[in-house]
Amino acid sequence: MMESKRGMHQLDLARIQSQTRRHFLGWGTGGLGAFFLNSALAKSPSHLAGENAPLDFTRNPATPLSVLPPEFAAKVKRVIYLHMGGSPSQLELFDYKPTLARFHGHDCPESFLKGKRFAFIQGVPKLLGPMFPFHRAGKSGTWISDRLPHLEKAIDDLCVIKSMKTDQFNHAPAQLLVHTGDARTGHASLGSWVTYGLGSENQNLPGFIVLISNGGTTANAGKPLWGSGFLPSVYQGVSCRSAGEPVLYLDNPKSVSRAERRQVLDAVDEINRQSYDEFGNPETVTRIAQYEMAFRMQLEASDAMDIRREPKAVLERYGAEPGKTSYANNCLVARRLAERGVRFIQLYHWGWDSHGTPVDKGLNVGLVGRCKETDQPTAALLADLKARGLLEDTLVVWGGEFGRTPMWENRGGQEMEFIGRDHHPNCFTMWLAGGGIKKGISHGETDDMGYDIARNPVEIRDLHATMLYLLGFDYRRLNYPYQGLDQKLTGVKPARIVSEILA
Amino acid sequence: MSGRLSASAYFCSVALLTLAGFALAMFVRPAFGHSMLQWMGLESVPQAEARSFYATRVSPLFETHCISCHGEKRQKAGLRLDSYAALLRGSKHGAVIRPGEARNSELFMRIDLPASDARAMPPSGKTPLTPDDVTVIRLWIAQGASGVRRTIPGAPQPVPEVKIPEDAPALTEKLRTPLAAQVRKVQREHPGILAYQSRNSAWLEVNASLRGAAFGDAQLQALAPLRARIVQVDISGSSVTDASAPFLAGMPSLQVLRLGGSRITNATLVALEQSKSLRSLTIGDIQTGEDTLASLRKKHIAIFGGAGVP
């Protein structure tokens, strides 16, 4: 009790110390006048709240992930974000361009190239029509290629956004933009904002879990993609392994029993508490809480991520194989984590960067492989969530970090042996499913060549604003004061909630 | 030159010159003329009807994108766009719209400029108009800039805008107060089960799915004092049985119920047919009678789960 009071005092002190001269000068000029107007106009308290009135996110530092209610009634309580790293080709999956098909093999028009910068294309490439046949699927008649036969069965639950746009054409900054709202490092990721704002229902598991398949342990942009940036570090994503121990060294060494581990932890806690008594840093209290969570995780995380406990029929539906690391395993783990109250689950699957160099990155080889790896498990995840009534209040997001060009990539100006497309920030496709989203619709259109957006552009920050709205937040009020600015996920430019896709 | 003109002659010439000046001003600046006539009460102030296309489609665009600089607080270039009369009056440079001629209207020319042009309106930094917004304004001007017409053929459909609910702390406090003590009691004794739906709500949500078998009929029915305010119950995997059927069926505000993996059977589902508020039900692998599911679906209750879901 005394500790938390002291903790609060220290937090206040830290907050006061962070107000710089800049703040004082800024407020001073308006302050007195504002006081007078306030009393003169005497409006009701709700009018004083304003669109950026801060919400209170203070918590007991010993339970940093405790649940806080959203600002207003939320449509979804958790997010499962499926990131297709490298960026899947929208022209081979969702964005049907028959006109582009007619111009296949022609030289790319100069208007597409003049004044533009590409990641790898040089000179004049050829236009590349869709590599796979398209058809209309489901009752909604949404266009889809033949590469995703399983997902097609769920097409009437999806909202396909074909007019996403970004301003980054390289992987790392584009991934940072998609996941942290800014193309430079240092900003808090989506999952961090969400767990900061809402906490997590299960205090025995991290609130933000990351699962990676097909390509090592880190993304192009690295761990900042699920980092906490300027938010307290407790809100960062925890990257878990889906084979073996969920987190390396989570389990005790073979010679150490759980009781012995408890003794060690008690001793460490004692030392930390002495440190806290001396220095009063609330991060120490949080550190103690994290050690305790790791101790609880030894039991619960292993259970949550152990897919051997699932019936054979479920494993087959996902195509999951216990003991391996695969996207299918990760999808099944994602469902188990969703059931267990984890707030934000992020899956990364790499290898979609279909430049055509080398063969396994080609559209006709690599893309085919990636679709085979992800199609069935994604569809199984959606069906499973739906059957458990969880899809109603879960938001599922699928997409990459930019699109791919309608031109055949010619790296170094040379014609390529394998077929690929370069990075294309102008337009790309993502889809959403779950609570609060209109089912079976397409939003936005690109032009006949698939080069630019023709209708309803959606910026990344618009997508973020919409996600936060579904989670029950005004994107302007989920903010955190840092470097003299109330930092927001959506950044400083105004964002628009994409009302057309809301149910 | 005193003494040359009589007082009345002097007065008449000044009056004539003044009237001539006014006439010239009205000729050169019709907008000024209209303002004068309206001020003198000789002309009625143009008003748009409340259900006209202007009021429902055009005026909201000005309100969102323009009146921060062209309204009550500020009148850049002497232009106000916060009323139909002000719009017709124009700026200090003249009329901004020519009814019937969109492309010759200064207002349209400015909003049609590419964003990179320095004279584009709204200026950079302000929320831009979408192409559909510009089309709406163009069509409205082109078809006469009427304050009466209700529909303009060819105008794009309006996009629904999201209304973020406003904080209402006093009202929320008032609604929460009667049961606040009981809510706190439950949150103390069984942490993590009971929560308000949002910061601005007095509705409650129950989530016992992480408790497992430790949560049973006794724990559920201990929530009886709060039952009228509960909108969502998740007792998946709990040890709640059919003994709680009357309790669940009798909750007047219950909308979402998850029962999968509990010890509930079809008997409770039959009882739930009495519920007037239920709209979503997750049943897991409960063995159900076909007619039970059918009659629940007839009440527009979404049912999730069913045979084969572990």
List the helices and strands and how they pair.
The complex is a heterodimer of chains A (503) and B (310).
Chain A: H1 2-18, H2 21-41, H3 45-49, E1 78-84, H4 98-102, H5 110-113, E2 134-137, E3 142-145, H6 149-152, E4 159-165, H7 171-180, H8 190-198, E5 208-213, E6 238-240, H9 258-279, H10 282-304, H11 312-318, H12 327-339, E7 344-349, H13 366-387, E8 394-399, E9 403-408, E10 421-424, E11 428-434, E12 441-443, E13 445-446, E14 453-455, E15 458-459, H14 460-470, E16 479-482, E17 485-488
Parallel strand pairs in A: 1-7, 1-8, 4-12, 4-15, 5-6, 5-7
Antiparallel strand pairs in A: 2-3, 4-11, 8-11, 9-10, 13-14, 16-17
Helix pairs in contact in A: 9-10, 12-13
Chain B: H1 7-28, H2 30-39, H3 53-65, H4 84-89, H5 106-112, H6 131-142, H7 169-189, E1 194-196, E2 204-207, H8 217-221, E3 230-234, H9 245-249, E4 256-258, H10 266-272, E5 280-282, H11 290-298, E6 302-304
Helix pairs in contact in B: 1-2, 3-6
Give a brief description.
The complex is a heterodimer of chains A (503) and B (310). Chain A is 34% helix and 16% strand.
Task: Please give a structural write-up.
The complex is a heterodimer of chains A (503) and B (310). Chain A is an alpha/beta fold and 503 residues long. Chain A folds into two domains: 2-49, no CATH class; 78-227 and 317-501, Alkaline Phosphatase, subunit A, CATH 3.40.720. Chain A is built from 14 helices and 17 strands. In chain A, the strands form five sheets. In chain A, strands 1, 4, 5, 6, 7, 8, 11, 12 and 15 form a nine-stranded mixed β-sheet that branches. Chain A has a two-stranded antiparallel sheet with strand order 2-3. In chain A, helix 9 (258-279) packs antiparallel against helix 10 (282-304) and helix 12 (327-339) packs parallel to helix 13 (366-387). Chain A is globular. Chain B is an alpha/beta fold and 310 residues long. Chain B folds into two domains: 53-142, no CATH class; 170-304, Alpha-Beta Horseshoe (Leucine-rich repeat, LRR (right-handed beta-alpha superhelix)), CATH 3.80.10.10. Chain B contains eleven helices and six strands. Chain B has a six-stranded mixed β-sheet with strand order 1-2-3-4-5-6. The longest helix of chain B has 22 residues, at 7-28. Chain B starts with 6 loop residues before the first helix and ends in a 6-residue tail after the last strand. The model of chain B has no long low-confidence stretch (mean pLDDT 90). At the A-B interface, helix 3 of A face strand 5 of B.
